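Bug #77: duplicate submission created two jobs. Keeping one. Sequence:
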Amino acid sequence: MKLYSIFDMKAHAYGPLLAYQTDGEAARAVAMALREKGSSISEFPEDFNLACLGTWDPQTGQVVGADPLVVCNLSALVQ
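Kept job's structure:
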């Protein structure tokens, strides 16, 4: 499993960790969250990046961190 977080470029901070198998699955989940009106990410998607932060093995519990890798800016997920 890969570990992801949404980075707020205005606050210079990462949000809670999210676990998904692939970048595409993570992007789809975030795209669905963008449809919820009234949230910061839906109102200002250009201010946020989806980033991969490492991996997690659910069998062993081992977490391996990595330098944050931007998957996409959330504005690219707005339909």
